[in-house]
Design brief:
The complex is a heterotrimer of chains A (about 160), B (about 90) and C (about 110).
Chain A lengths: L6 H23 L8 H19 L1 H7 L2 H25 L34 H26 L14
Chain B lengths: L1 H24 L10 H9 L9 H9 L1 H26 L1
Chain C lengths: L4 H19 L3 H21 L23 H31 L13
Helix pairs in contact in C: 1-2, 2-3
The chains are: A mainly alpha (about 160), B mainly alpha (about 90), C mainly alpha (about 110).
Chain lengths: ~160, ~90, ~110
């Protein structure tokens, strides 16, 4: 677990990982048109990152990214979500008001009554909230798996990571 | 030991009878009781929110406060796990 | 009685999970029992909002007709995420208990059975 698997597994997982990330980001970005959204797409990308962790070993992965950077990413997602809710209080009248419906600049169109065509420019404040929650879920789930895998790895003090002293 | 096992069996049997009884007395599967709020949401989600997805508009617009609570629970879980394993590695 | 089979399946899931929590001694088996109870509750929330002959409440390329209720599906999303958080915290506490007591037996920790 702490040293990783063979070279074939490492190469194949590094090749497949960008496709998983693109699939997860597609699910997050089209959350207001198709089934999906922030939580579901974030879970897909986090499981792709967990596949990288299992293939390369926890010692190599924690050399690449520390949990402090993941904590900063997660806090950014949470602050962006609350900022969008407070902007609804400033521009509208209530907390969490959808203040971007009907304007001409950003995600403001309204689909017709009972229309079955998917228009990406609709949704109001929903796509921005999807990105904030997706970032929070990716960073949070990957931080949980990484900390658990690193803290329970079994190597003694004074040994290098491939068994030599 | 024997008294504790006897009490556990009695408790489990009582709870099992209650659950099966409640599952048979719920409304028939396929006709909910009073869908007035959900019919309003289905009819008005394209003009008020502007999204095609009814479930996402409920999660982020009509009931956005519950999503704020859920984000707080996820943050608390990550903080608790990192706290436990920081003491363990030292 | 034949029309309430999803609710009987929910009751079976919750009872199997409750059996794992009450009658088993290993801590990991208790954690699995709690996860089974949580899965049963999520299934119950989804099957409450079904209308006979309806499709998903999404307008993109929908075939028309009735739509099922969207509010229980939104509540189930929240419940699944909370289940993941509870499972992560339970497993980290089990690891901590094992490092301290050197055993996973629920009757031997806490100084109850000497």
């Amino acid at each position: 677990m702490s040293m990783g698997m063979s070279k074939i597994v490492k190469t194949v997982s590094s090749v497949v990982f960008p496709f998983i990330v693109i699939y997860g980001l597609y699910i997050i970005a089209h959350g207001h048109l198709t089934p999906g959204g922030g939580f579901q797409g974030g879970a897909v990308v986090a499981s792709g990152c967990a596949m990288l962790l299992v293939a390369h070993g926890s010692i190599w992965t924690i050399g690449k990214i520390r949990e402090k950077q993941l904590s900063i990413l997660e806090s950014t997602g949470a602050v962006a979500f609350i900022l969008l809710a407070l902007l609804g209080l400033v521009f509208g009248t209530v907390f969490f008001k959808n203040f971007l419906v009907g304007n001409k600049f950003l995600f403001g169109e309204i689909p017709g009554y009972l229309s079955r065509v998917a228009n990406f420019n609709t949704g109001g404040v929903l796509p921005l909230m999807n990105f904030a929650v997706g970032l929070k879920v990716i960073a949070g789930l990957f931080a949980i798996v990484l900390v658990m895998a690193y803290a329970t790895s079994t190597f003694k003090k004074g040994e290098m990571e491939d068994g030599k002293r | 030991m024997l008294k504790r096992d006897f009490a556990a069996v009695i408790f489990f049997t009582v709870v099992a009878v209650f659950f099966v009884f409640a599952a048979l007395l719920t409304h028939p599967f396929g006709s909910p009781d009073n869908p007035v709020m959900d019919d309003y949401i289905i009819h008005n989600t394209q003009t008020e929110v502007g999204a095609n997805n009814g479930v996402t508009s409920v999660v982020f617009d009509y009931r956005g406060f519950d999503t704020l609570g859920e984000a707080t629970v996820l943050f608390t879980a990550v903080a608790g796990v990192i706290l436990v394993f920081r003491r363990l590695k030292k | 009685m034949i029309y309430n089979i999803p609710y009987l399946a929910v009751a079976a899931l919750i009872l199997v999970g409750l059996y794992g929590v009450v009658f088993k001694r290993n801590l990991i088996k208790m954690v699995i029992g709690v996860t089974l109870i949580e899965s049963g509750v999520n299934l119950f929330l989804i099957t409450l909002g079904y209308r006979k002959g309806s499709t998903a409440p999404i307008y993109t390329s929908s075939p028309g007709g009735l739509m099922s209720l969207p509010v229980p599906q939104a509540l189930t999303l929240t419940s699944i995420v909370i289940g993941v958080a509870v499972l992560a915290l339970m497993l980290s506490f089990v690891v901590y208990i094992y490092r301290h007591y050197k055993t996973l037996d629920a009757r031997k920790i806490g100084g109850e059975d000497e």
